[in-house]
Amino acid sequence: MTSPRLPKPRLDPIPEADWTEEVRDLLAPMARNATGKPLNIFATLAHHPKLMKRWLVFGNHVLAKSSLSPRDREIAILRVGWLCRAEYEWGQHVLIARASGVTDAEIERIASGPDAPGWSPGDAALLRAVDELHGDAFVSDATWAALGARYDVRQLLDLVFTVGQYQLVSMALNTLGVQRDAGVPGFPK
Tell me, which fold does domain 67-176 have in CATH? Predict the structure, then answer.
């Protein structure tokens, strides 16, 4: 698997020397990379501050206020990143997934999908839902029923919107050529 899709950005992150006051306010609270700079995703999206500001509200819900457990959220996000071939997304969320209780063996197995040996029926249904949403923009009745045995209505909604959010983000990252930040892993070999 080649990585990243674009060897250099189509749209460079805005260097700090070029930040407007609006951009400075947006980027001040953002997560930083190993060199202390805002993550490349944020410094890139800051080219459109109004869009970024509104997207952050939704993204914050999905990442920090979702009714899904952090582990389940990260499994879903990693699967989206893998299916979209979004190495930036994959790498950032490998780090978050590890901190959320996803094991390295599970992270490696996510690439193989819901039918890989070792998944519980609930985890397999979660991964299958991501695959179905990615491939068909629809969750089958069988997968929905399996999810319903595990999740309440809010969690089901959060799952669908998590997949949609990270599909959108993956498309933007891939298209803009956002490069991985220092110290962020790439796809497994």
Answer: AhpD-like (1.20.1290)
Report residue 111: phi and psi, to 5°: -60, -30
Residue range 130-157, pLDDT digits in tens:
999 999 999 999 999 999 999 999 999 9
Compute the residue count for the chain. Answer: 189
DSSP letters spanning 24-49: HHHHTTS-B-TTSSBPHHHHHHTTSH
DSSP-derived 3-state class of residue 39:
coil
Helix, strand, or coil (residue 82): helix
Provide mean pLDDT across the span 147-169.
98
Element (H, E) at 161: helix 153-176
What does the chain look like in DSSP terms, one character per residue? --SSSSSS-SSPPPPGGG--HHHHHHHTTS-B-TTSSBPHHHHHHTTSHHHHHHHHHHHHIIIII-SS-HHHHHHHHHHHHHHTT-HHHHHHHHHHHHHTT--HHHHHHHTT-TTSTT--HHHHHHHHHHHHHHHHSS--HHHHHHHHTT--HHHHHHHHHHHHHHHHHHHHHHHHTPPPPTT------
